[in-house]
Amino acid sequence: MIKTIEQLIEDFNTSASVAFAKKYEEYSPQLHSLVGTYPIGYTPATKAVFTHFLKGLQKVNTGPIPAESMPDNYFITIPNDRYGEKVEVQEADFERASGEIANLELYKRQIEGLAVNAKDHPVVMALNMIEAGTSSVYGKCYDGENLFSTAHYYSTSENQSNTITGTGVTKGLIYADLRRAFSALRSFRYPVGGREKKFNNNVQAVILCPSELAGIFEDIRSAEFINGETNTLKGLFAIIDEPMSSDKNWYLIDANNQGNPLCRPVINPLEKKPILKDNFGSESQKLDGTYRWQADYRGGYGYGAWWKIVKTTNA
Tell me, what's the pLDDT at 109? Predict the structure, then answer.
């Protein structure tokens, strides 16, 4: 039976709403596990505090135990901006569908895309932030340095670096640089309780690399031997490849959050679950015969714990 335009629109709206909700629940971007959410609600911007730089126990001879203070550079500011998208379908397009909802499948896919983009947005911002990590365009780390720096805080007399100058992008050279990156990641320390503590003892290693290098890292992950020697990194890392601004730079990331989601490499405001809205019955729909589906969501970005990522730069 051929449906009327009104019936077709009603059925399409029901089908699209179900598809949107299902796609949002099912979809999980690769980088999602690397992005922690900070529960700051929906205020315009919030300073997030990180406590791993506290010095720990203090000796007390007389009087009360002194309170630990939090200097300004132990905070980062996370902006909390509103984003959204919409899909428009003209009444004439429903007429062309000849009463068959299957002829509107393309529009339903576009509405599913709203759910995918809502999930993707925080991780896309995180990727942009990582690539811009030598500048403060997205803010600074908890120690007041940019994400990638040779002067990250350890003590008043010593700094640490999470940047490596690569030797090249062949398999043998990347393997050698990767061993250096692992060594750097596992050596990062911070002071606690009057002594030093390594933060990355149990590394959950993830390589974030441009798509052009994914095959080389896959070879390294699976090979028995590299450069004639036993491959000591076989099976020790996962790989996430993304289109990037450079086809030669890559990153070694510790995805182990130490049991605390705020110890992921980067942080975002609390994720808002988007709701699919429509304009049925509104004055705008009646005036111009345009049906709109819209998803609102919020996104932000902030530098996470600097010791979670080592950048290798190749000329």
Answer: 96
